[in-house]
Amino acid sequence: MLAKDLKPGSVFVHNGAPHILESVTVQSPSARGGNTLYKFRARNLVSKQKADLTCKGTDNLEEADFQKREVSLMYSDIEAVHLLDSADYNQYSIALADVENEMKYVCEGLEGLVALIYEGECVGLQVPATVELTITQTDPGVKGNSATGRTKPATLETGCLIQVPEYLKQGEKIKVDTRTHEFLGRA
């Protein structure tokens, strides 16, 4: 897979171990004929260490060999998240610290949740690109405010805090992009 095609959440092999991509920074060339550089911040799925990697857009990275299993959330405690495989009812656990960014968008009954299984052990969690969540707390909108432009903070049912347009009220269901952490629209 080409480096320019990688997106946050992609899984690839680096130094013989699977890594999940957390962020991408694109650095355009300053000189004519220069190469665009892609700077990746990834996390090793086995050792949990962070890794920084710089590649040209045409560099080829090996896709990691692991299983993707559709799962549902059973419960979460202070140490781990416990998941149930939708196909064969196997149970998987993963440390809460390893998936705290993904858990901002996971609520009960979420469809499309995928566990990354490497050598029989759950090493990561992928959430859908967009999720529908309910606003549990936000300041009330003021009559006469424009429907565009200004935003306000809103707390979602999972505890995640995002910026939403001023016209939205508490109790409304909205769509959120899990990759950019941005409001997409009403659900």
TrEMBL record:
One of its GO terms (biological process) is peptide biosynthetic process. The keyword Protein biosynthesis applies. CDD domains: S1_EF-P_repeat_2 (cd05794). Keywords: Elongation factor, Protein biosynthesis. Residues 68-123 form the Translation elongation factor P/YeiP central domain. Coiled coil: none annotated. GO terms for cellular component: cytosol. Residues 131-186 form the Elongation factor P C-terminal domain. Pfam families: EFP (PF01132), EFP_N (PF08207), Elong-fact-P_C (PF09285). It comes from Aeoliella mucimassa. The keyword rRNA processing does not apply. One of its GO terms (molecular function) is translation elongation factor activity. This is Elongation factor P-like protein. The gene is yeiP. Belongs to the elongation factor P family.
